[in-house]
Write a structure and sequence with these properties.
heterodimer; A: 50 residues; mainly alpha; 0% strand; rod-shaped; B: 158 residues; alpha+beta; Immunoglobulin-like; 2 domains; six-stranded mixed beta sheet; five-stranded mixed beta sheet; 11 strands; 17% helix; binds copper (II) ion; membrane (chain B); copper (chain B); Cytochrome aa3 subunit 2 (chain B)
Chain lengths: 50, 158
């Protein structure tokens, strides 16, 4: 007899990326921070010099 | 709540920066007394020519003040009075300016002097001319057909 598939388990598992590795994020945040500090200090020096 | 160690680092960095900048603004305003160039000083724009100090535009030596000179400018479409002025090198100068008609700009290119001149208001800024040379004053607020021709010159001489 044909079997209904009402009770068949549908495979919903998707691969989860390892979200605890933030090395790249840290690097990009620090690079952005450095750019902000360099431009701020540069403009402040310009302000003081003229 | 779980928070990654790195997230803590950049959150502290961000909040620290915010705190530093707010402190800088607070110290600048309340301890050093810095204020915007136009700070509630008013004038009748119709009577600028007869109101002191604008009845005598130009450089004037002053005694007993925090600055050595007062440099008075009157702006009107499309010129500044005076059209050229000499300032001694190293002088601490208070620039006092206003407009007779519409809104004008007042920027001495290559210096920190940059303010807006609004009719009815007096704009002031204190500056020290540390570098010799000619500094072009330009109008950087669009004021009409002659806007691009509107200029003056400060010459810093030794
Ligand atoms: Cu103008």
């Amino acid at each position: 007899m044909a079997k209904t598939e009402l009770n068949r388990k549908i495979d919903t598992e998707t691969e989860v990326e390892d979200s605890t590795n933030l090395n790249g994020t840290l690097a990009s945040v620090m690079i952005l921070g450095a750019i902000l500090i360099i431009t701020w200090v540069g403009l402040y020096m310009l302000f003081l010099s003229r | 709540m779980h928070m990654h160690k790195f997230e803590k680092i950049w959150l502290i960095f961000g909040f620290g920066a915010l705190l530093v900048f707010l402190t800088v603004i607070g110290v600048s305003a309340f301890y050093l007394g810095n204020q915007p160039p136009s700070c509630l000083a008013t004038i009748d724009p119709e009577k600028v020519d007869t109101t002191a100090p604008f009845n005598e535009p130009g450089l004037k030596k002053v005694e007993g003040k925090e600055w050595d000179y007062e440099l008075v400018f009157v702006a009107s479409a499309f010129s500044y009075s005076p059209a050229r002025v000499e300032v001694p090198l190293g002088a601490k100068v208070k620039v006092i300016a206003t407009s007779k008609d519409v809104m004008h700009g007042f920027q001495a290119a290559g210096t920190n002097v940059n303010m807006m001149l609004e009719p009815g208001y007096i704009s002031e800024v204190v500056t020290t001319f540390k570098n010799p040379g000619e500094f072009l004053i330009v109008c950087n607020e669009y004021c009409g057909v002659g806007h691009h021709m509107m200029h003056s010159m400060i010459e810093v001489v030794e």
